[in-house]
Amino acid sequence: MKSFKYKGWFCEWDGVEEMYFLFTPEQMEQPKGYRDVEWEIETIENAKAFIDSYNVEE
Questions:
Q1: How many Cα atoms occupy the beta-carbon half-sphere of 45 within 13 Å?
Q2: pTM of the model
Q3: Contact predicate 3/48, CB 8 Å
Q4: What is the largest CA-CA distance in the chain?
Q5: pLDDT in tens, the chain (58 residues)
Q6: Is the dihedral of CA 54, 2, 25, 19 positive or negative?
Q7: N or C: which end of the chain has fewer CB within 10 A?
Q8: What's the pLDDT at 49?
Q9: Cβ atoms within 10 A of the Cβ of 47, count?
Q10: CA–CA distances in Å: residue 40 to residues 20, 49, 57
């Protein structure tokens, strides 16, 4: 498994946890170590579905 970007989000694969950690585009502006994980999810398909359905109030 590999980490990937989708619609500006960064989906970081963690081989130990065997999960993807999802970071919003805004979180990616922060230095590593200061970012908060938005969601943890098991598959690429579920990660993309979550991002597609994510609604941010502006």
A1: 0
A2: 0.86
A3: no
A4: 35
A5: 799 999 999 999 999 999 999 999 999 999 999 999 999 999 999 999 999 998 655 4
A6: positive
A7: C
A8: 95
A9: 22
A10: 6, 13, 21
SS3 45: helix
Q: For residue 10, which amino acid is it?
A: F
Query: What is the spatial distance between Cα 9 and Cα 22, in angstroms, rounded to a whole number?
Result: 7
Determine the 3-state secondary structure of 53 from DSSP.
Answer: helix
User: What are 9's two structure tokens?
Assistant: 């989000």
With a CB cutoff of 8 Å and minimum separation 6, the contacts of 40 are 17, 19, 20, 21, 22
Beta-strand runs (E) in 1-58: 4-6, 9-14, 19-23, 39-41
Could you give the CA distance from residue 1 to residue 57 in angstroms, rounded to a whole number? 32
